[in-house]
Input
Amino acid sequence: MEDMVEKVELLLQQKNDAELKNYLDNLNISDVEELISELPEHGPKFIETLSVKRAVNVFRILDFHAQERILKKISGKKIAEIINELPPDDRTSLFSDLHGDTVSILITHLSAADRKQALALLGYEENSVGRLMTPDYISVKRTWDVDRVLKHIRQYGKNSETIDVIYVIGDKGVLLDDIRIREVLLADPETKISDLMDGRMIALNAGDPQEEAINTFRMNNRTALPVVDKENVLLGIVTVDDILWIANEEYTEDIQKIGGTEALDEPYLDINLFKLVKKRVGWLIILFLSEMLTTTAMQSYGGELQAVTMLAFFVPLIISSGGNSGSQASTLIIQAMALGEVTLADWWRVMRREILSGLMLGVILGIIGFSRVALWTTFSSIYGVHWLLMALTVCFALIGVVLWGSLAGSMLPIILKKIGFDPATSSAPFVATLVDVTGLVIYFNIAMIVFGPVMHH
Output
């Protein structure tokens, strides 16, 4: 063992890297591991020197502290190689033990593509804030003075994604505060950073869903927010441009689903025609089958239709008014839900508002419908002697249908979300169909009540 250590120390003194590589590559893996524990300060150098496969095998058998020490010292390229080559179970156990500050150093060393992969390997879920973080930020210690901070920014600021905000970190990389750059620029050079800290900071958690981050950005008007782990160690930052990108993707997907197509994963004009048809056909068939219920509903009121033929003329008008108000309501609610303005807990407030707005809209349309029948009657006798009954039927049916449409449209997304479906998929067309069928029932029942006495003659 001692011969080995002497031999290696000699090669290190001579800076004979080629010979060192040759020597290390021919040793047993366990010998290299012993070397690293004998000469810990040269551990990183040995790992860098070994060929990738052997480096990984040595790295695997080191104890965790040695692994952590080495990761902090070797080059980004080598880190990426070792991490990618590590067997998944070793990699997972390494990552689950790593402390936040090592993780943040790791991320810094990796290229954007490798970083994505490493963050995935680190166990950050696909839609979590952790996947968005970039390590390009400026962090300083609370004991530094402004002068030293500015020197630090001059040296490292070029690579930073944003220098609007600098982050104060304590031992082991724990985030203490964030300070806006203007406060640093306006302070005296001798001022200590600890004097500029106000302890008010907003941080995202690496495991949070990205949607929460969108809301936090919306509430706090920041260009970037720090991301911390469970121990409050600063891992990286998320910048507002990444968040806008995500918010936009979520929004586009929701808007497409509102129209009752599945979300398109590629731009409309690039998508294969058959794929486009496939995404639309499922919904159309479901809606078509549901609309058949409309026909069934009409057939069951055949007797009334024969008695008052006029009723049939108003069917399209009544049905589409209900469907339209329902689609409007569901689109508004889904948008509000996507933007986080409405949550499941708000259902009663939504319902109250929709009952009121549905009533108002219904009354407005009802008055227009009533006037239409009354006006026509002055010019022609098409509505016959019972024109007033007809006008009342249309008026009340519109109030009923629009109110019901607004209610169904606003509650459906909330109910779907509650049962765990995506509210955006179900929306407009679904509501329209539902309201069509029920709208007919409302219309004919009101007609039966209004025309009841006349029909029995």
About this structure: The first strand starts at residue 139 and ends at 141. The mean pLDDT is 81.
